[in-house]
């Protein structure tokens, strides 16, 4: 059956600001769904309050509403668009589903004659209400752990008495495992039960008998209206039950699952999906499997929507789950749709992976002072990375190299733990860095049986680690000139980086690289083709690996490289890697726009990134996608292979920027602002000299490289002093200190974590107003795209401030200084592209805090507020295709737009929630107000000084 011809206009609900538990995977799925519906000529109306995402770009939907996700906003939209036929709520995570249910309960969909597609309300209610779900599973013969529901404290106590400990408490209708906990001891039960009941919007918890040590699996399913069901991907959690899947290291396809058990699990999943409702769309099902020979299967839960895992499964398999799910929701059948990768077979197929995927979460505990860093049922990670390799070991290494936590991979970098008690503690209380600690434990000689006994991680995974360590030991007995080719090739095939191999051999990374070149050990690129090369793939989506040479009949030897280089002029865009606090989805927005703009200028576009949640790693965003770590060795090999005109670094946040020095050193052209200018702005001392030469005021400052120097500087600068390291993002390590003791402690602490850093000590302008400006410069002309005033005082990181566009309280004199300083600095830095400058205003004098000649967090916000594609313009300027004067700028904004930060403190109890110069927000929303009399503005302004911490 082709699509439902009655559906002409569809409302899509987005997921709102990014919080821990709901990140940019829904930006990716929402964007795919919007594109998918527009292909079919359907009018799309989007509601989402997040300005940082590609999804809310005017080019994505016919009508974009940047409004709070409330039923009041829905009514407003439905009144303005009476033509809306249906709502698709499955692309915006739990937030969208919850809003859809609330609107249904209030009769809003019925009042406006809007049909719900992609899911049905009964399915949501059954899967969210754990008691109903349990009854249904028992009815269809799917086993579940002993469970009971409690809607009161007393009932919870009775259940605990009956089941005994350990227990799992899960709150109903929550996101990212909020309110969930494992209770080992009776004395902890009361507090955790109360917390679960409070967090659940319906004050209900499900109490399960804990299946500690059982293995955990996820299946991603799609079903059409004809009841065809396909299983797109099987994902195995390396971490056993007891750690939220969002915080687990996951592997696809499943590595330790017997085929017999997989077939049983598959049948169960299909049965579960069919039993919860008669809808066409996507589903994520989670199972626990006993770690013995019986391999008993128990259902954990089913989510009738696209999920975090379906973004991962899409990137892992090359099957665009959200795109196809949107087509199924409007009536298509799977056999009528095209396989997007081969373009010659149908979508009614199950992908085959001839490679391995490893996903590792990215945490940001350093931003949550005093937080419990142990992993458990409540998700705590802020992002994730994915590695693709020909083996588990290669993929694991690639994923660890992608994390950007100053590690070069597993082991062989001198940064492992060497204290026995510390290692045992980190294994026992699942730590965020356990993926590295397992290697350290093996290195220390702790037997695999002991590691397995503590962690319950399957022995197969531990043996893979052991093999890696044995290889490291063997290589360490050689020197660079005595190492044989087969051993070096094996190390590369297992994912070891040149830096790690250099560490083992006691030589330089460049020497290992040269030796590889001499021996002909070169990376080859393989296609992610969904069907293990059974059919020819048309999609240029690649990962790298190392292969043994094949010898032809004529004696010629070669390794097969599937990435064919064209003779077109090319541009590489470096992505921003994993999401983290200080570098979020806004840089993905910038990268996607950069790719699209470069394509408009006639370039072949190449994207390099390793974040599975994003639109930039969608296989149809750039002409070629390399799903690789944003790690020097990988990037250099791609550049040598593709020979681009140049590389764009200023759109990928600090991740891409940090590679500018290496690119410059190797003679690779940086598109736009040069490395010298980028470095000048980052080096706090040199930048202040530039300001001095241009007669631009800045707070009194000095530089220190030791605690002793810092104390000497404090004698000439007045306290309070703002301490700032160089080359960091999101205010990392910044702090306001008010005496010598605090200064010494903080400097010692900083230099321990960032050795050799140049610290800038500023006199902190107490009580100053903070403002910032973003501009586009072509080296001769400067256009200021937006000036924002922060509601909070100077001293709270700009990412944590409510930023108002245009300013609400700056006089003409101050505004003129801001404009003059911005133009002067942009030109003095020889900026070509974007620049962001931050100001402190005191007694009508505008001081410069810092300048960043790159895309900033606020650029997408300004673009959405004014309705102008500024990143597109800036990219064309960087490429030399246009001058600033070639654009006809027409910003449109009635009233004011406020960028409002959103925090995820609720995931961490007993954490310091005070705000200061180090950024702590995980996302943002946009608020439009007509004038300053608006109640919301008044409330924000009244609270502006509440959180400032010195």
UniProtKB/TrEMBL annotation:
Alphabetical UniProt keywords: Amino-acid biosynthesis, Arginine biosynthesis, ATP-binding, Ligase, Magnesium, Manganese, Metal-binding, Nucleotide-binding, Pyrimidine biosynthesis, Repeat
GO cellular component: cytoplasm
Domain ATP-grasp as annotated: residue spans: 134-330, 688-879
Cofactor: Mn(2+)
InterPro entries given in the database record: ATP-grasp (IPR011761), ATP_grasp_subdomain_1 (IPR013815), CarbamoylP_synth_lsu_oligo_sf (IPR036897), CPAse_ATP-bd (IPR005479), CPSase_dom (IPR005483), CPSase_lsu (IPR006275), CPSase_lsu_oligo (IPR005480), CPSase_preATP-grasp (IPR058047)
UniProt xrefs under Pfam families: CPSase_L_D1, CPSase_L_D2, CPSase_L_D3
Metabolic or biological pathway: Amino-acid biosynthesis; L-arginine biosynthesis; carbamoyl phosphate from bicarbonate: step 1/1; Pyrimidine metabolism; UMP biosynthesis via de novo pathway; (S)-dihydroorotate from bicarbonate: step 1/3
Biological process per Gene Ontology, one example term: glutamine metabolic process
Reactions accelerated catalytically: hydrogencarbonate + L-glutamine + 2 ATP + H2O = carbamoyl phosphate + L-glutamate + 2 ADP + phosphate + 2 H(+); hydrogencarbonate + NH4(+) + 2 ATP = carbamoyl phosphate + 2 ADP + phosphate + 2 H(+)
MF-aspect GO terms: ATP binding; carbamoyl-phosphate synthase (ammonia) activity; carbamoyl-phosphate synthase (glutamine-hydrolyzing) activity; metal ion binding
Subunit architecture: Composed of two chains; the small (or glutamine) chain promotes the hydrolysis of glutamine to ammonia, which is used by the large (or ammonia) chain to synthesize carbamoyl phosphate. Tetramer of heterodimers (alpha,beta)4.
Similarity comment: family membership: Belongs to the CarB family.
The protein's role, per its UniProt record: Large subunit of the glutamine-dependent carbamoyl phosphate synthetase (CPSase). CPSase catalyzes the formation of carbamoyl phosphate from the ammonia moiety of glutamine, carbonate, and phosphate donated by ATP, constituting the first step of 2 biosynthetic pathways, one leading to arginine and/or urea and the other to pyrimidine nucleotides.
Official protein name in the record: Carbamoyl-phosphate synthase large subunit
Organism per entry: Bizionia paragorgiae
Lineage, highest ranks first: Bacteria, Pseudomonadati, Bacteroidota, Flavobacteriia, Flavobacteriales
């Amino acid at each position: 059956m082709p699509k439902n011809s009655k559906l002409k206009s569809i409302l899509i609900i987005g997921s709102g600001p990014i919080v821990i538990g709901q990140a940019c995977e829904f930006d990716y799925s929402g964007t795919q769904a919007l594109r998918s519906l527009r292909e079919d000529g359907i009018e799309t109306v989007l509601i989402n309050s997040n300005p940082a995402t590609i999804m809310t770009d005017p080019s994505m939907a016919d009508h974009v509403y940047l409004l709070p996700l409330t039923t009041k906003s829905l009514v407003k939209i439905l009144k303005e668009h009476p033509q809306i036929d249906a709502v698709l709520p499955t692309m915006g995570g739990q937030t969208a589903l919850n809003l859809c249910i609330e609107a249904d309960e209030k009769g809003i969909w019925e009042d406006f004659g809007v049909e719900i597609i992609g899911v049905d309300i009964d399915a949501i209610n059954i899967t969210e209400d754990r008691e109903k779900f349990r009854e249904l599973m028992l009815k269809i013969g799917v086993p579940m752990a002993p469970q009971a529901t409690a809607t009161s404290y007393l009932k919870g106590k009775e259940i605990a008495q009956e089941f005994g400990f350990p227990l799992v408490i899960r709150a109903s209708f929550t996101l990212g495992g909020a309110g969930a906990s494992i209770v080992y001891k009776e004395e902890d039960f009361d507090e955790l039960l109360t917390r679960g009941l409070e967090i659940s919007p319906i004050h209900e918890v499900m109490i399960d008998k804990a299946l500690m040590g059982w293995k955990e699996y996820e299946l991603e399913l799609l079903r059409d209206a004809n009841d065809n069901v396909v299983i797109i991907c099987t994902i195995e959690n390396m971490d056993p039950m007891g750690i939220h899947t969002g915080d687990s290291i996951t592997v696809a396809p499943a590595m330790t699952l017997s085929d017999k058990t997989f077939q049983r699990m598959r049948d169960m999943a299909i049965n579960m999906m069919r039993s919860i409702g008669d809808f066409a769309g996507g589903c994520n099902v989670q199972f626990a499997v006993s770690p013995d020979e019986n391999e008993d299967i128990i259902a954990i839960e089913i989510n009738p929507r696209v999920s975090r895992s379906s973004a991962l499964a899409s990137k892992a398999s090359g099957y665009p789950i959200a795109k196809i799910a949107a087509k199924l929701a409007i009536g298509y059948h799977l056999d009528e749709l095209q396989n997007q990768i081969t373009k010659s077979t149908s979508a009614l197929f199950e992908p085959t992976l001839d490679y391995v995927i490893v996903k590792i979460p990215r945490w940001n505990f350093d931003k949550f002072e005093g937080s419990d860093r142990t992993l458990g049922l409540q998700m705590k990670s802020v992002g994730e990375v994915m590695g693709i390799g020909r083996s588990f070991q290669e993929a694991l290494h690639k994923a660890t190299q992608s994390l950007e936590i100053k590690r070069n991979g597993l082991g062989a970098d001198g940064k492992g733990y060497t204290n026995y008690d510390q290692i045992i503690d980190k294994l026992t209380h699942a730590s965020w860095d356990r993926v590295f600690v397992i290697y350290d434990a093996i290195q220390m000689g702790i037997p695999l049986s002991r590691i397995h006994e503590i962690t319950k991680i399957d022995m197969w995974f531990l043996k893979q680690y052991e093999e890696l360590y044995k290889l490291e030991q063997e290589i360490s007995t050689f020197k660079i000139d005595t190492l044989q080719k087969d051993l070096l090739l094996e190390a590369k095939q297992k994912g070891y980086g040149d830096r790690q191999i250099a560490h083992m051999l006691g030589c330089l990374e460049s020497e290992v690289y040269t030796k590889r070149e001499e021996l002909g050990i070169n990376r080859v690129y393989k296609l992610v083709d969904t069907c293990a090369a059974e059919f020819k793939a048309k999609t240029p989506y690649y990962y790298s690996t190392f292969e043994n040479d094949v010898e032809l009949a004529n004696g010629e030897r070669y390794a097969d490289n599937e990435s064919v280089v064209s003779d077109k002029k090319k541009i590489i865009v470096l992505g921003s890697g994993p999401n983290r606090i200080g570098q979020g989805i806004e840089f993905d927005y910038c990268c996607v726009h950069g790719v699209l703009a470069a394509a408009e200028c006639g370039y072949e576009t190449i994207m390099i990134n390793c974040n599975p949640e994003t639109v930039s790693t969608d296989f149809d965003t750039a002409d070629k996608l390399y799903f690789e770590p944003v790690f020097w060795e990988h990037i250099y090999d791609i550049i040598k292979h593709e020979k681009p005109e140049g590389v764009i670094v200023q759109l990928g946040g600090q991740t891409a920027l940090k590679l500018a020095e290496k690119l410059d050193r190797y003679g690779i052209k940086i598109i736009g602002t040069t490395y010298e200018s980028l470095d000048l702005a980052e080096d706090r001392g040199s930048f202040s000299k530039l300001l001095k030469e241009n007669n631009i005021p800045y707070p009194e400052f000095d530089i220190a490289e030791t605690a002793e120097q810092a104390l000497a500087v404090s004698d000439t600068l007045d306290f309070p002093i703002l301490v700032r390291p160089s080359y960091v993002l999101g205010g990392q390590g910044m702090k306001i200190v008010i005496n010598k003791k605090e200064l010494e402690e903080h400097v010692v602490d900083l230099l321990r974590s960032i050795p050799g850093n140049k610290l800038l000590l500023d006199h902190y302008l107490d009580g100053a107003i903070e403002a910032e400006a973003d501009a586009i410069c072509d080296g001769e002309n400067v256009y200021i795209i937006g000036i924002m005033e922060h509601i909070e005082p100077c001293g709270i990181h700009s990412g944590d401030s409510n930023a108002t566009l245009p300013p609400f309280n700056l006089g003409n004199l101050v505004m003129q200084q801001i404009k003059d300083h911005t133009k002067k600095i942009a030109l003095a830095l020889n900026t070509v592209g974007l620049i962001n400058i931050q100001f402190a205003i005191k007694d009508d004098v505008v001081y410069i805090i810092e300048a960043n000649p790159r895309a900033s967090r606020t650029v997408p916000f300004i673009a959405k507020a004014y309705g102008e594609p500024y990143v597109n313009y800036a990219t064309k300027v960087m490429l030399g295709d246009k001058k600033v004067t070639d654009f006809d700028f027409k910003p449109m904004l009635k009233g004011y737009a406020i960028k409002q930060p959103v925090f995820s403190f609720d995931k961490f109890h007993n954490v310091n929630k005070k705000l200061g110069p180090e950024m702590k927000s995980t996302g943002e929303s946009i608020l439009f107000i007509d004038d300053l009399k608006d109640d919301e503005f008044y409330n924000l302004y009244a609270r502006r000084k509440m959180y400032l911490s010195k």
